[in-house]
Design a protein that fits this description.
Elements: E1 2-9, H1 13-22, E2 29-35, E3 42-46, E4 49-52, E5 56-65, H2 68-82, E6 90-96, H3 109-113
Helix pairs in contact: 1-2
Bound molecules: adenosine-5'-triphosphate (ATP) and magnesium ion.
């Protein structure tokens, strides 16, 4: 199992959600976060205007998938839907996940995902 965490622009929330729906990824957690990258938030465009603060509002997606094939598909969908080409587009992280349990049934790992 692989966990994918993507930090994207606030205004890309709907586009990324739709792209994930389109490839039938269905377990998704979304949160509003603050962060900075290489430029430390300096002079990024947020909602059309240039802002000069160190931490900028972003959207974080968390998705757990069952295989490397799904990892690739999910990352490709996020990359293309979150892309503008400007600084601050965000990052996608992925890592191995130790375990999952569905609370209702106590199913574990792959059974808990599918
Ligand atoms: N190394 C990192 N660790 C944790 N979070 C990060 C890291 N880099 C970026 N982020 C998160 O991603 C958000 C967007 O980062 P950003 O797109 O500015 O990255 P970047 O490396 O500066 O790339 P770019 O040059 O395209 O701006 C940040 O606000 C932060 O929340
Ligand atoms: Mg940056």
């Amino acid at each position: 199992m692989i966990k994918i965490e993507a930090i994207v622009r606030e205004e890309k929330l709907e586009d990324v959600k739709e792209a994930l729906n389109a490839i039938e990824v269905n377990g998704i957690t979304v949160s509003q976060v603050m962060g900075c990258g290489m430029q430390k938030g300096y002079k990024e465009i947020v909602r059309g205007s240039e802002v000069d603060i160190t931490m900028l509002p972003k959207i974080k997606f968390e998705i757990v998938v069952s295989s490397e094939e799904w990892e690739e598909k999910t990352i490709a969908a996020i990359q293309s839907s979150a892309f503008t080409g400007n600084i601050g587009d965000g990052k996608i992280f992925s890592y191995d996940l130790r375990g999952v349990m569905r609370i209702r049934t106590k199913e574990k790992d792959y059974d808990a995902l599918n």
